[in-house]
């Protein structure tokens, strides 16, 4: 071989060395221990924050909604012994603990407050307990249980104890059912409250209807707008997108008051209508559901447009051309290709807008009229005004439940279409 | 500037571009008087650089765009204003353009469903088409889960399944790895042989065009430069552009001193006298470019082998597997490249050796002058 071929020969060992280095690198990447530990360590502050600031409060809310605080604090000894006893009609220690607790409370008549939750469950039981508390067995009486049963045979009834156990239980579904205007009868059946006593379920219904309309209007406005953005030139599209982001950054209060000013008695709309001579007297446009719907649609529109815009950007002109060249008329191409390809974006947008709208507070609180209440307004009422944490937590749990339900429905439907990125990454890893 | 061979055929053509112009498109490409005849059943490739007008021509052929002036004829009838979905032409895109929400099978059944074929029948025929491209096990997969080559095979099946009158392929292999592209080339050729459709194909890769086509049309600057069989274009280019685009060549500039059909004498700018075949020169005194393919250079030729013989020095040898590329420098400084089959390299010479190099007049073509 001549001198001229030397560069080629020199190149060979270089390639070999490079390959060895690469395989070494690949090998070290395949060893999970150090890298995985490091990645977890790097994520640790985030995970900690997530746990402390998100999971913990969430669990606390769920717990508060189910916890039974009223009796939980009082009569601790009685409740403890009752929980240790699993008979239909408990034994002597339970009766003795009950008598003892009642005696302790006798002096300051505090037992009446403790009895309140029993009266909510069953007036008959309340009467029974009150009678016992006022005629406690004399000291030295042999069997406390016998005395109780002697004073009223109802104490020997398993049904009586069923109700007592329910009231004394650490957890109660009372708040949850109450939030749906449903009561639990002593025999364990669910019954809707009479119409005139219903209220909470109507609030939930109104909120869901509001969310539905807001989502629908946002979709009807957002889809064409997103389409226009995709087909637009880059620079104007970017300006409009940053405008949408600015809408997100604007304070909710500012947006709310702006709309209130528009719909006010002396506002823009009335001014225009009066000026054009269409009406003589200003219309009472506010407060009303209409204002809330319009303002919320406006405030949540970016959440609809952005995911749809993203999904539309993924549809290439070639896909539409392909559809047409394969024999679809342009209209048919839209319905068989464009719409289905952008459906994940539509679903994501609807999910975001709906979930956000059923949790919206400031806007409906300021713009809705009398008797027009949303879940979050009721929630604030419970948490701040009435200080009924149980009901507030139950309401919050419902919002969470509805949101989670829609989210899982979304994931079940669209997860097969996504996730291609993770699969690609794992395939690449397999190659090494 | 349509080459002399662009209207070479009197036979009936299935498709005909007649002086098609297309003014400014957003990507900057345009057509400036494209003329081309395409015969029924042939595999014709538009070969040229990006921006040469290939895509513009194909998109108009498929019906996604209309000419500014001129006409496109199909069986003698103008189709310039017939919308794409009424043409019954199939298009294969470089981007594959599969529908992401449909499985491979549904993708292939799509054109049949659009033509009102019943679902069971469409599914059956789609399965057959996918079997023909060896994708039977993957019919239920969505495009995102298929590899690039598999996606392109689905796209092929989707076009073949409805038996289009013409199949338009716009650089279908450009986005694939070289290995895969070569295998797909083979597959496309077999499919075409099996079905006999008319295929109009676009590529930037001359070896791909040579491997696939019956005829090639070289396109640049929005017009067809030359059409012909791959062999004719490679061995007998009519202009410097074609000579260079079809493969490696030695391009030498000079002035014609005497012109005697079919040969001419050229004095290179560096001084050498060369006898060449006159192709597109106006006469004595004209400027010209000479093209000699590197594999036509003969090392140490004898008198009968080559009238053109020059002393040269070997300044470099590149081993290329099946051949070795020699870098030669003539006394005047002119640089030449010669391809020598590897069986011939061992005998005799190495780097820095003084040798003689030559070529036959018929392999040296005097083409149009540099612009």
Short description:
The complex is a heterodimer of chains A (432) and B (371). By secondary structure, chain A is an all-alpha fold.
Structure, described:
The complex is a heterodimer of chains A (432) and B (371). Chain A is mostly helical. In chain A, helix 13 crosses helix 15 and helix 15 crosses helix 17. In chain A, a hairpin with a 5-residue loop joins strand 1 and strand 2. Chain A is built from 21 helices and two strands. Chain B folds into two domains: 240 residues, P-loop containing nucleotide triphosphate hydrolases (Rossmann fold), CATH 3.40.50.300; 120 residues, RNA polymerase II/Efflux pump adaptor protein, barrel-sandwich hybrid domain (OB fold (Dihydrolipoamide Acetyltransferase, E2P), Beta Barrel), CATH 2.40.50. Chain B has a six-stranded mixed beta sheet with strand order 6-7-8-3-9-10, with helices on both faces. A five-stranded mixed barrel of chain B has the order 11-12-13-20-14. In chain B, strands 15-19-16-17-18 form a five-stranded antiparallel beta sheet, with no helix packed on it. In chain B, strand 17 and strand 18 form a beta hairpin. In chain B, helix 2 packs across helix 3, helix 2 runs parallel beside helix 4 and helix 3 crosses helix 4. The radius of gyration of chain B is 24 Å and the shape is elongated. The N terminus of chain B is likely disordered. At the A-B interface, helix 16 and helix 17 of A face strand 6, helix 2 and strand 16 of B.
């Amino acid at each position: 071989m001549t001198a001229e071929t030397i560069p080629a020969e020199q190149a060979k060992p270089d390639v070999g060395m490079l390959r060895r280095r690469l395989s070494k690198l690949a090998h070290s990447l395949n060893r999970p221990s150090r890298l995985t530990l490091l990645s977890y360590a790097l994520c640790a502050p985030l995970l900690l924050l997530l746990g402390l600031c998100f999971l913990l409060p969430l669990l606390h809310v769920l717990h508060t909604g189910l916890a039974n605080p009223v009796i939980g604090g009082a009569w601790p000894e009685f409740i403890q012994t009752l929980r240790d006893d699993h008979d239909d009609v408990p034994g002597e220690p339970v009766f003795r603990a009950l008598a003892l607790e009642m005696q302790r409370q006798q002096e300051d008549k505090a037992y009446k407050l403790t009895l309140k939750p029993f009266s909510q469950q069953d007036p008959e039981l309340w009467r029974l307990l009150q009678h016992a508390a006022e005629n406690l067995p004399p000291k030295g009486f042999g069997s406390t249980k016998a005395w109780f049963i002697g004073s009223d045979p109802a104490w020997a009834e398993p049904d009586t104890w069923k109700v007592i156990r329910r009231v004394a239980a650490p957890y109660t579904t009372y708040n949850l059912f109450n939030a749906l205007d449903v009561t639990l009868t002593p025999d364990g059946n669910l019954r809707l409250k009479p119409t005139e006593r219903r209220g909470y379920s109507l609030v939930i219904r109104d909120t869901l209807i509001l969310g539905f309309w807001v989502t629908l209007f946002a979709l009807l406005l957002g889809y064409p707008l997103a389409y226009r953005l995709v087909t637009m030139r880059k620079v104007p599209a970017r300006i409009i997108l940053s405008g949408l982001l600015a809408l997100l950054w604007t304070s909710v209060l500012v947006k709310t008051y702006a709309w209130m000013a528009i719909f006010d008695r002396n506002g823009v709309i009335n001014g225009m209508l009066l000026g054009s001579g269409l009406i003589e007297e200003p219309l009472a446009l506010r407060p009303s559901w209409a204002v809330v719907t319009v303002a919320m649609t406006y405030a949540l529109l970016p959440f609809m447009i952005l995911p749809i815009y993203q999904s539309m950007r993924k549809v290439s002109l070639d896909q539409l051309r392909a559809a047409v060249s394969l024999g679809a008329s342009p209209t048919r191409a839209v319905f068989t290709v464009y719409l289905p390809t952008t459906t994940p974006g539509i679903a994501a947008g609807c999910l975001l807008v709906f979930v956000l709208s059923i949790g919206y507070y400031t806007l409906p609180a300021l713009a809705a009229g009398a008797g027009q209440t949303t879940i979050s307004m009721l929630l604030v009422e419970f948490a701040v005004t009435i200080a009924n944490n149980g009901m507030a937590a139950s309401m919050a749990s419902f919002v969470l439940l509805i949101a989670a339900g829609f989210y899982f429905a979304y994931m079940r439907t669209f997860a097969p279409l996504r996730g291609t990125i993770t699969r690609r990454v794992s395939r690449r890893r397999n190659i090494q | 500037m349509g080459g002399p061979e662009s209207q070479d055929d009197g036979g009936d053509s299935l498709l005909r571009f007649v002086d098609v112009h297309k003014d400014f498109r957003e990507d900057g490409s345009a057509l400036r008087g494209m003329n081309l005849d395409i015969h029924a059943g042939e595999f014709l490739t538009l070969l040229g650089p990006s921006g040469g007008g290939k895509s513009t021509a194909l998109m108009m052929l498929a019906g996604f765009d209309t000419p500014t002036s001129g006409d496109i004829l199909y069986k003698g009838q103008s189709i310039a204003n017939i919308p794409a979905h009424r043409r019954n032409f199939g298009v294969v895109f470089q981007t594959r353009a599969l529908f992401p929400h449909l499985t491979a099978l549904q993708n292939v059944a799509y054109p049949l469903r659009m033509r009102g074929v019943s679902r069971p029948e469409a599914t059956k025929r789609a399965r057959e088409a996918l079997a023909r491209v060896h994708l039977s096990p993957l019919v239920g997969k969505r495009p995102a889960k298929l590899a690039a080559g598999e996606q392109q095979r689905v796209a092929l099946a989707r076009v073949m399944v409805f038996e289009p009158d013409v199949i338009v392929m716009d650089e279908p292999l450009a986005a694939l790895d070289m290995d895969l592209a070569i295998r797909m080339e083979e597959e496309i050729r077999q499919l075409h042989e099996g079905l006999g459709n008319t295929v109009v194909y676009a590529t930037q890769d001359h070896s791909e065009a040579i491997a696939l086509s019956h005829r090639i049309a070289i396109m640049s600057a929005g017009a067809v430069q030359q059409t012909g069989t791959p062999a004719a274009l490679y061995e007998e280019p009519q202009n410097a552009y074609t000579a260079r685009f079809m493969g490696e060549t030695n391009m030498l500039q000079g002035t014609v001193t005497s012109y005697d059909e079919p040969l001419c004498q050229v004095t290179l700018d560096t001084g050498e006298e060369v006898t060449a075949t006159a192709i597109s020169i106006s006469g004595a005194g004209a400027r010209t470019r000479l093209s000699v393919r590197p594999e036509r250079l003969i090392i140490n030729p004898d008198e009968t082998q080559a009238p053109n013989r020059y002393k040269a020095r070997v300044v470099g040898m590149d081993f290329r597997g099946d051949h070795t590329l020699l870098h030669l420098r003539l006394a005047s400084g002119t640089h030449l490249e010669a391809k020598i089959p590897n069986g011939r390299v061992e005998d005799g010479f190495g780097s820095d050796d003084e040798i003689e190099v030559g070529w036959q007049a018929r392999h040296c073509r005097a083409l149009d002058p540099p612009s």
